[in-house]
Specification:
Layout: E1 12-13, E2 17-22, E3 28-33, E4 36-41, E5 49-50, E6 61-62, E7 69-73, E8 79-84, E9 87-92, E10 116-117, E11 130-139, E12 146-155, E13 158-164, E14 175-178, E15 183-184, E16 188-190, H1 208-215, E17 218-223, H2 228-241, E18 247-250, E19 255-256, H3 269-281, E20 286-287, E21 289-290, H4 295-308, E22 311-312, H5 320-328, E23 333-335, H6 345-354, E24 357-359, H7 371-378, H8 385-389, H9 395-400, H10 413-425, H11 441-452, H12 457-464, H13 466-474
Parallel strand pairs: 1-5, 11-14, 11-15, 16-17, 17-18, 19-21, 20-22, 23-24
Antiparallel strand pairs: 2-3, 3-4, 4-6, 7-8, 8-9, 9-10, 11-12, 12-13
Helix pairs in contact: 3-4, 10-11, 11-12
Amino acid sequence: MNIFGGDRRVHLTSDNATGFVPSPDEEFVAWIERFNAYISPLPMTGKPIDVSTSLADFPAKRISRDVGSYMHWAPDSRRVYWSLGPDLYKRDVSATFAFETMDTTTLVKDPESKGMPIGFKAIADRPTGRIALTGATVITMNGTEVIPGATVVIDRNRITYVGPTASVTIPAGTKTIDVAGKFIMPGLVDAHAHIGTGSQGIAPRVNSGFLASLAFGTTTIHDPSNETSMVFSTSETARATGMIAPRIFSIGTILYGAEGNFKAITTSFVDALAHLRRMKAVGAFSVKSYNQPRRDARQQIVEAARQLQMEVVPEGGSTFSVNKTMFLDGHTTLEHNIPVAPLYEDLLKLISSSKTAYTPTFVVLYAGMSGENYWYQNTNVWENEKLQYFNAPGQIDARSRRRTMASDDDYFFVTVSKTAKALNDRGTLVNTGAHGQLDGMAEHWETWMMQMGGHEQSRSAACCNDQRCEVTRAR
């Protein structure tokens, strides 16, 4: 196109390719297609050319073993670069196409699998000094232990004492804060938190969703679907620069089994291993197998995760038969609710024996009305001043003032919660997951819905913190 955006000419098309990058001399083009890098001559015929790699008569060469991101050319157009996590990869045109070299013995047949490390290490941000919080009632999460009139001492970023005030000598120079009448407990862990991290490489320095989560007590989040290029950089930025945020973990981009340009094609164990290698390289310890239609593909992903010491946190898309195989095949968790409830003893025994954890996300349910609307219906959410403080004007009102109304027995989450309790009673680890529905508040809704299904207060709180931690440790 010209400098005014007119005279637009289309040279290349593809159903699944993204990020076309022509060489400076316009002789070649590189692109990403379903998580791999390709190069080919750039045909300028005056009409669009389909460069799909499935077309046998188009001279495209795959040059990456696992993935390609941030593709760019050398100034002389003789070499293309791309990256994966902390490594930079390269491929010369002369090593790819026979017509570009006089010595065909220099041709490289296999995709590039070894890159050059370009990463760096940064010191994690740590506060200075000591703080003593005195006079609080502390819920330790050690069973049902509650310590009235307690003191908590924090030295930099470590808790060094939790116990009765009478039993501690506060070190000299410690900043002391009287929190009598307040309650202190370990931070909540939102095990299924879809969070906003920015887009196109630009992340906000101040994220209101992060601030709201912290203000309501959520100190760790695990996001089971986000943009790989954004979420891991945001997590690292928060750790290294003092950006105010919970601890952020994520799977990055899902391993999607349906059609689309980000479909994670898994026809063999080699494919599965490649998908998990690329996700581990960018900082993931977990992946989400989502809408993978074949059971053997899901099994291959699980086995690849075992070999790479990773977790697999799938969801069954409201398909009960798929859910059952996920328990049978050894997935780490099941995300979202099982669409059938109540469950009877045969399924309760199967699921609890599998040791697969369960994150039912009561706020967003399959097969029935979601719990989020229950709280809009039965509480005046817009009157919560803390919630309003951390959200844009009108955002809470738009959700909560004109609300869905239904009979209480229309809501499915109570039955789902009772099933979760039955599983928890049999040893299944059950996690809360607020799904990003209302930052900060929704994690508390999850806790309350646990209690509405019969969980005791201490047990529902455990589902909000130490059980998710146990799932992570078990990997």
